Structure formats: C-alpha cells, structure tokens
Amino acid sequence: MRKFGLCGVLLLLCSCAAGEINKKSSAQDTNENTGNAKQYSSDDDVIIASENWPERLETESSSGGFTPPETMESFTHEDAVQDPYAGTSSQDTSETVIESSEEQAETPEQRAKRERFEKLAKSIRYPGFVQPYKSDAWSDMIDLAESGYPPAEITVAWGKLLGVFTRQNIPEAAAVFQKYANEGMPDAQMGLGFLYATGTEKHSSQSKALLLYTFAAFGGSQWGQMALGYRYFAGIGVAASCEKALDYYRRAAASVADEVSFSGGSSIQRVRLQDEQEGGGYSGIQDNDLIEYYQLLAGKGDIQAQVGLGQLHYQGGRGIPRDPRQALQYFLQAAESGNAVAMAFLGKIYLEGNEEVAASNETALKYFKKASALNNPVGQSGLGLMYLFGKGVEKDTKKAYEYFSKAAEQSWVDGQLWLGNMYYNGWEVPRDYKMASKYYNLASQSGHVLAFYNLADMHATGTGVLRSCPTAVEFFKNVAERGKWGNLLMEAHHQYKLGLYDEALLKYLLLAELGFEVAQSNAAFILDRKDSEIYDPEEMWKRALVYWSRAAAQGYSNARVRLGDYYYYGLGTPVDYETAASHYRIASEQQNNPQAMFNLGYMHELGLGMKQDIHLAKRFYDQAADTSADAKVPVYLALTKLALVFAWKNIEEFKLIIGIDTWETLELYGDIYLMSLLMFLIGYLIVFRRAPPNQRNNRQQQTAAPRAARPAVAPNGTAGQQPSATAAVRQPATAVSRTVSSATSPSSSLSSTPVASSLLTSSSSVQSSSGTSLPSGSAAIGTSSSQPVAGSSTASLEAVAGTSNSSPSTQPSSTSEKTASEKKED
Q1: What is the pLDDT of residues 573-591, one digit of tens each?
Q2: Are 440 and 449 in contact (CB under 8 A)?
Q3: CA of 357: how far to CAs of 63, 351, 367, 403, 543, in Å?
Q4: Where are the alpha helices (DSSP H) in 45-130?
Q5: Residue 675 DSSP class
Q6: Whole-angstrom Cα distance, residue 2 to residue 6?
Q7: CA-CA distance, 200 to 202, in Å (whole number)?
Q8: What angle do CA 144, 146, 148 make, to 5 degrees?
C-alpha cells in the first residue's frame, strides 16, 4: 500500500509540474506574439487591439458605457461587403474605387462635364498640340471651371499658380487648393503640399507638405508619387528608404510607359541657366535663325532639310512642340524624292495614327516595305513590328526576329529594344535574360524610354541581373521625368528668356519638388541672382542654398562648387571654410571640376580651412590648368603671385637663420647696402659692355682708311672736287673694307680686269672733260692684284671725282690722329 501511495504522490507532483510548465510556455508565447505585433505596428502602422480588452469591456458594461443589444440578428451572405480590390492590380486599386463610387453617384450632367473635362485636359497636356490648340482648349477649361466643376477649377488654379495661359495669381490658386484639399481631391492636395513645401503663400512646413503629398499619392496623383519617391530617395524630411522610393517611382514610371507609343515619346531639352551664362548665353533652344534657314532650304527642295524638319516636328525639340501636320507635309515632300528615312517615318505615322491621319496598316506596310528595300533600319524595324503583332499581315515571329536583327545590326534603337523584348519573353528564341539586358542597355544609350523602364524592372526584381534597388530607382526616376510634365522645363526656360522670372521660378520649383536636377539648379540660379519678386530678398540666398544642395547631391558639379562658395563667403549661412573646402574637394576628386581645383589651390595658399601649403597650392593650380584651357591665364597669374609669396617666405626664413640682431642691422643700413649694390652693377655693366682691344683696333683701321684714300690738294693751291670724309664713311661696310685693302695692298695694274679697265677709261674721259689731268700717283689708289670689282669701282669713282696732287701740308700727318667721331666711338 505504501508503494501505491508513494506512486500516487509522485504522479500528482509530476502532473502539477507539467501544468506549471505549460502555463509558463503559453504565457511566453503570448508575450512573444504581442511583442512581434507591437514591433510590426511600429514599422508598418498596423493597429493592434489592447491586451486587456475583455476586462475593459466588462468594466464599461458594468459602468453603463456599453449596452448589449436586446436581440441578436443573424449575419447573412448579403450583408458581406464585397472586396473592392478583387480583379484589379494593386496599382489601380484606389483609382478603381474612386471611379466606381463616382459612376454610382454620377448624373448625366456630371458625366457630360467629366467627358468634356477629359477631352480638354488631353488637349492641354498632350505635347502634340501646338499653341493655338492649347489656347482654345484653355478658354473652354475656364468656362467649365466657372460652371462649378471641381477638377476644372483645380486645373485653372494650377494655371494661375504657374502662369500658364493666364496671369499669375498665387493667392487665388492657394484658396482653391485649400478648398478642395479638404474635400480629398488629390490634385488639390498636391498643390497645397507644394505651397507648404516651398513656403509660397503659406508658412513653410515640411511635415504638412509630406502629409499632403502622401494623400495625393494614395489618391493617384502622379506628381504626388514622384514627390514622395524623391523625398524617400534623398531623405528629405523623412528617413531615406530605397524600397519606398522604388514603390512610388515605379507607379509614376508605369503611367509614363503606358503613354509611350512606337515613336518613343517626345524629346525634352534640359538647359541649365548657369552653364548657358558661362557659355556666352548661347542655347540650342529656339534657335530661330537655324530653323528658318532649314525652312528656306526645304522650300527650295533640299531633301535633307525636309527630313530634318519632319523629324523635328514629329518628336519635338529645340523649342519646337510636336506638330504632326507639319511633320506629315515634310515627310511627304521628301518621300516623293525617294528618301528612305522619310518613307520609314511615314510608315510610323500611319501605323500609329494621330489627329491628322487615321491609322492605316496597309499604307504603313507600303511605306515600310519601300524603306526596307533601301536597307533602311527604321523601315526594317517597322516591318518587324507589323509581323510581330500581325498588323496588316499574318503574324510571323520568325520574320519579325529577322527584321529586328537587321535593324539592330545598324544600331537602330527600335530594333535593339524589340530584339530585347523577344529575348525577354522568349518569342521565336529561347528566353535569355542576359541577351535581353544587353539589347536593353544598347537601346537605353540612345535614350529610349521603354528601354529604361525594362532595365529598371529587371534590376528591381533581380531578373537576369543582380538585384539593385538604387539602380532600379535611378532608372524608374529617369522614366518618370520623361512624362508630359517635362515640357514645363522648356516653357520655364522660354519665360525666363522673356523676363517672366516669377512664372519661370514657380515652374522650376514645382519640378524641383518632383526631383528634376536641372530644375533645382535653375531655381537656385534665379534665387541666387534675386531676379524674382515672390519671396523676400533677404531669404533668397537661404532658399538658393537649399536647392544648390539638392542639385549637388544629384551629381551636378557646378552646384557643388556654388555650395562651397556659399559657405566660403557666408551667403545664407555662416562662414565655414572647412565645409567650403570639403565641397570643393568633392567637386575636384569625384567630378574633376577645374574651378574647384583652383579654389582648393587658393585656400591652400592662404591656409583657409586647411593647413597652409604652397606646394599643394601649386599642385592644384597645375591640375586646374591641365583640366581646362580656360584656366591657364588665371593659373599663370596665381602662380606668379605664388612665386612672389614663396620668395618672401624664403626671406623670412633667412631672417630667422641670420638672427634678429643682424637683420635689424641690415635694415638700419639698408640704403648704404643698396647703393653699394647698384654701384657694383653699374661698374659691371661698364666693364663688360666695353668692346675688346682687337675690335677697337679694327675700328681704328676702318676709320683710318677713308683718310688715307682722301685726295690731295692741287699744286696750284686750288682743291679739286674732293669727297668729304662723311661720304666715305656712309658707304657700305663691304665697300669700306675693300677700300682699306686696296689702299694697303701692293701696287698693281688696275686694268688687270676688263671691268677695271673700262672704269679707268671712263674716269680718264671724265677727267679730260673736266679740264684736269689724272695724276700719276692716283692710279695706285685702286691697284690690287686680287681686288674685287666693287673695290675697283670704288677707287675709280674716287678718281672720277677730279682729285689732284695735294701738298704735304694739307695731307693728314699720321693715322694716329683721331677725329672727333673716332674719339667718341672709342
């Protein structure tokens, strides 16, 4: 019995211990689940019910706060709420719900207004319409807004804010945004968020701007999605999150990619105002002279001009909006002359259709075949599209692959894109993501929007490449910025050139909020120059500093240099040489900017924000000169100054070496030392500038020769026609030397040469005609056995001068006597 009793006690103890363990484990599991739920709530904003809700329910019921119903009704199938997201993608969820609710409550009058609004909105925003069409559409939009249709009122408010087709009126636009933002209109929430973000007509509040941007993005606003994507990507007002930025940019890019047709979309010119100013004010935008010149050539039948203008009006560019009518006319003119490019683009026009011509597969196929027969890659890719989708022909992926390959071999972007699509989807070829990525990269180098979008999707999902969230965000951002709102860049630049600085600034600020780097730098440029009157002039530099920082963060080197200038000079911020030097260093090392190199050299020279180092200063100066040819002259002047500074620094070091007392003594008698040095230099110049003795003897002989050759006075005391000494001296050096040689050479017959004999004959005739006879000794003046002809002519000319025998008293006594000119020469 004792054994059974002990066994029973042991079993009881074991069961109690097991129960306690189960209670503890269940409590731990409950705590862990609650902690995980709380952590999940903090990260993803999930609301978790309180742990003690049963106790609170009992307390509320006992205190009268909660009264249970007397009767309970059964829950039926009809009472269930249908899932509004069923059958729709996550991207179109909010739009589907809004549209379904609007359709249920929409009256025929509201439906007519909505259809009218959509038509007018397409006319205004679609870049294919030229200015007159947009003006008429805008007038109708104003009429619709006055009738009280909210979307039209919001659109007109955006026009008043940006100064589009109407006079700028920011207060009225702000009032409309405030009114409809409270009613949940996404575009109005976006506009009000923009006013809070920029501090326009509202006190700046980044928290309110972020909240309104979020509501607008969830409501389907593409601008709101881009604004949130950029803020999460750059970490502006929120913690940087690549994944959230990827989500928002993916949605905006998808809407842009859906609107891209076979033509690839319109082109957008991005002009930086600072670069335009530094380049002398030249810009490729709206180069009217060049456009008019090509129009003149096209009118005269120039085929290349017709094709160029057709492409310009087909895609837009150089300040010219898309104009399908003009494009069609120019292409038809060039196609009549047999131009393959014009035929291919006509095929694209008829394949897609526009407001000028209806889509026609037969006409498109005709033009594509003509262009392809001339080996044109545009025509080949067009035929590939028609065979791929079976437009006008029987669907044949094999022929499509062949035509795309031929076009890609000639580096045509459409051929590369669609060849990549065939490898990506496995059409006619085995699926190969690496080959697809290769052709997408080739097409992206030519700027095709869909190539960027496909690459972004591959990097976002890790398809065929390693997954890279930053790379995917960059590609999606590139696609999103190629939407129809990119035309605001060209409109802002045009208004800035016209002097409408307020309108241009608001457009640049809006695009800057969407993440456009060019818009950020241009807005900072206008604020830096204080051209606008919207904001307080004292706040201009502070605002410019913000946008210079954002543009510099996106890799614009000149913005990085300007950011360093602001910290160096204290513009909108306290002076901070170290921060300025750090910005200059980034621009120099990462972006190879010559201005940043020059500034670093200057700061090293003066020791501003860094240790003074003349050698490093010279190094940066040399780098700036090697990087840019425009920096050579400033660098030369800076190096000259640096050499003087280096010399003075050596003098200072010499002062320390010789001692302070010795240096003070040198300073006290410095004038005496300086005079002694100058006297030494003057004596040095006198001694070493004097001619050597052999050169002086030669000069004496040269001056004595004319005196020895001077004719004597006639015996009767009358002097003949004697040449002056200066005349002999004025003769060329060769004649003088030859005269000297003839006077000192042994006597010989002058008539040894035919020329000399003829000269003597002429001289004798001259003497006889003058009435005097030639002295016997005068013939010896020009005698020389080897005398050149020039020397003989000199002697004979002296004989012709009519000299006669002179008395010894009138002849110079000795060659040692020197004339005044000889003394002066010595």
Answers
A1: 999 999 999 999 999 998 8
A2: no
A3: 77, 10, 15, 26, 49
A4: 53-63, 93-105, 108-125
A5: H
A6: 6
A7: 5
A8: 80
Residues ≥6 apart with Cβ < 8 Å to 394: none
Question: How many CB atoms neighbour CB 567 within 10 A?
Answer: 23
Q: How confident is the model at residue 36 (pLDDT cuts 50, 70, 90)?
A: very low
* CA pair distance 285, 450, nearest whole angstrom: 25
Helix (H, G, I), strand (E, B) or coil at 772: coil
> How many Å apart are CA 603 and CA 582, to the nearest integer?
11
Structure tokens at 505: 């600034």
Cα–Cα dist 233/663, whole Å:
64
What is the rounded CA–CA span in Å between residue 482 and residue 318? 16
Angle at 680 (CA atoms; ends 674, 686), nearest 5 degrees: 140
pLDDT bracket for residue 262 (50, 70, 90): low
| Residue 48 and residue 38 in contact, taking contact as beta carbons nearer than 8 Å | yes
pTM to 2 decimals? 0.67
Beta carbons of 319 and 494 less than 8 angstroms apart: yes
- List beta partners, residue 320: 317
Residue 104: CB partners within 8 Å, gap ≥ 6? none
Q: With bands split at pLDDT 50, 70 and 90, how would you rate the model's confidence at 134? A: low
Dihedral of CA atoms 71, 74, 79, 83 in degrees, nearest 10, equals 120
Burial class (CB in 10 A: 0-12, 13-18, 19+), 786: exposed
The end-to-end CA distance of the chain, in Å, is 157
Reported as a single tens digit per residue, the pLDDT across 791-801 is 444 333 343 33
CA distance 783 to 796: 10
